[in-house]
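Bit of a strange request maybe. I'm writing a small parser for structure token strings and I need a real example to test against, not something I typed by hand. Could someone generate the tokens for this chain?
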Amino acid sequence: MSKLRQAIRNANRAKTTLVSGSLSALLAMTMAAAANAEEGAQLEEVVVTGIRGSLNDAMNTKRFANAVVDAISAEDIGKFPDKNVAEALGRVPGITISGDFGEGQNIAIRGLDGDNNITLVNGQAVGTAQWFVLSEAERNFNFEMLSSEMIAGVEVYKTAQADVDEGGIGGTVILKTRKPLQMEANTLNINVEGQYNDLAEDWDPAFSGIYSWKNADENFGVMVALSHQERTVRRETAEVIDVFGPSVTRLGDDFAAPTGAAEKGYTPWAAGSALFEQNRERDGVDVNLQWKPTANLDTNFHYFFSELKADNVNQNMLAIPFRGLFLTNQPATGTVTNGIVDSLEVSGGSETFQDLGWNNHMAYDNIYRDGSKAETEIIDFEGTYTGAGFELHGQIGTTTGKGVAKDNFFEFFAHNQDTRANFDYYNSGGNGFDVDYSRSPWLANPTDEMLLTAAFNQTTESEDTEDYLQLDGTLDVEFAAINQIKVGFKYRDREFTQERTKDNMINTSQAGDLSASLGTAGDYASGSYTIDHDETSQRSTTVFQPNQALMQQAFSDLAVCVDGDTAVCRTGSQFVYDASYGVQEDITSLYAMANFEQGNLRGNFGVRYVETETTSSAWDVSAATPVSTKLEGKYSEFLPSLNAVYSITDDIQARFSAGRTMARPAPFELTSARNLTVENRRGDTGNPELDPLIANQYDLGIEWYYQSGSMLSATVFMKDIQNFIYSSTFADDINGETFLITRPENGPSVTLEGVELVAQHMWDNGFGVTANYTYTDAGSVSVNDAALIDGDATLVARNITLPGVSKDSYNISAFYEQQLYSARINYNYRSEYFERAAESGDFNREEQARIDAQLSIFATENLTIRVEALNLTDEIIEQYHVAPDGVEMTTTQIDNGRRFFVGLNYQF
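Reply from user aminoacidic:
Good idea to test on real output. This should exercise your parser:
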């Protein structure tokens, strides 16, 4: 037997698995073992459980893997270490998470964001879906869709391995579910939980249960897992929509060059006081049927379904201070400090507003998204036949993700000549902005100060489907150091589609004409609400609450427009050609890999060949009648890989990995479809001619497993990334208006490099600590991009880098575990990072830190009481803007509040 196999067997015999364990139990087992030894008996297995067990399982996965792999293991059935799988991954070295709604949604691995990584369930793709209208189709899995109780463990491959699917230049996340023949017969686990959000001030229920059965012969089993979760979301945001400054002159007569002292400062186009509220319901089911008709043949049928109902409403009171920069006839136009407009008095009734033709400087958006939802489904069948020295494996299945994003939009405007429509804008730069509406007290109790002059109903439906077939063969050999050969074939047919319909109100006017609107704010006001903004720079804001049903009824009662209509009407439900598209990919993969072991050296080497045929379809709207267009493409890649581990001593081993990996562009990036925002004349579109990202990457590390449950490791990594994708800006004339459009482009090569440090230590007194630190440095390159200078779109050179890369990220977790209870506290940090480039500068995300804590009380052998708190310090998410001349200004601030959980776990 090889040294590796013997080491794995020894590790399994001493492994730490799943329930909450205790030192006293371990001591008792040790004493019993000693007694048995005196009697000539032999104890084959020692099981340590709980937090220590899950950490040891994860450590053993890392230790005995040939590639660079990190892992997470559940403490027990239904006891994944975090409430959200993405948040648990955020504690893995080199992984950072993002999510603007108080829950982990996407992950970045070694600085590379979601579309540069892939997530697999039991080794296969999972259809992704989005419920939010501003979320474009992505390849990365939406972790909001998944109940963590259903997951047995997670493996993160950070280096290439020929038998692992291509698609992630950052890494590959493999989620693992349980199988019934691996569990005791009649295993039952039930979780009942209540969740409280201190911002929403609501309690919400959650339930999950797992039942597993197998027959007496242990050759057929059934496992069923169910979950239901409700969550009330409240998010308060001080929001900046774009930043304007003196280095950029806007296009068009109504964006003429400013005059006066205020022109030398940067200011938002709009500054909003936004309230997002959502009632989420997530239901999931996971079914596994496992049958072993013979000792050699193992088959499994897996079905997974999850649906997230995501009704939500977003209300945003928008002040537009940019307009105030032009009020040269006012007594006080504003002040500028350190290149930022730090105070500005904006009042209705100005002749300047009228002369320049602007219709508003205050807007109130109400967006209702009832019926928004996302769902994911997996149907998978696999079989494995094990013979003498060989193994055959086959897997076939389909996965689908569907998203429905609703958008019932109603917008009120205050007319620029209304002397009652006033606000005062302040900005301290580094501490954020503030808008004072005290000179417009009617916002809480309006009459005719605002007119409802914009409305539409919109539905966006998206679908992501993949059908797959995979065949693998493994053969034990004795050829020099090579002891095993593995070959495989895989075919995938993946298709992304999006269709949008819209019913829009037209022939309205923002010029104060009541007949060209749906009426006044007073016609729809039904009380008021207050956004406290306790954690943001925006002061408490009270705004009238419109009646959704009345607005929708008024909109529905409008006549459907006919040719020649000049009165207010609605278009009726129409297909939006601009935003509808499809992307189909036929992917064929072949691989061959050899495992080797010679003395203290082990590992694998191999090559994966991938051929991708693409068809991108969209609509050409330049003609009077839109025409369907298709663009076909084809590319292939050879992806070699090498992973080697050398045992310096029994406890110290060194790693080296080299490989070539690839990542495909996001679906929306591969189309010529576009999304437009008429209010600020912005939009984005795709680019069917994009090439995939290619990375040549290298890892070098050393690991010291110096005692049971304890380790130190250090890994240096480097990625040379070719064809990386960045956003370019250009001006486009659309229906007689100039829009600034962003489009993805392939850039030249860029280098990403860094180091990961990991420490884990367990004491004999029940205490333990884990810590990791990652330093990541992303290079930048210079490209020629479009900017607006003196009213013309001009190519200028600018430096660009990879988005989402934090230079520093680290996690520290301390726990204490004994017979009656266990407790854990976690600290997570990531430094600031670049988000996106804009014509006026770069938008960046500020550093983020979070503290979470857990307490488990083992009331009986079967019953556990769990208490958990997330985001204890109520950290907010901040964005800041850096202008080309270096001026920095805090922009958007998001407050999601704290979350608290109290639950019971029963296992039988």
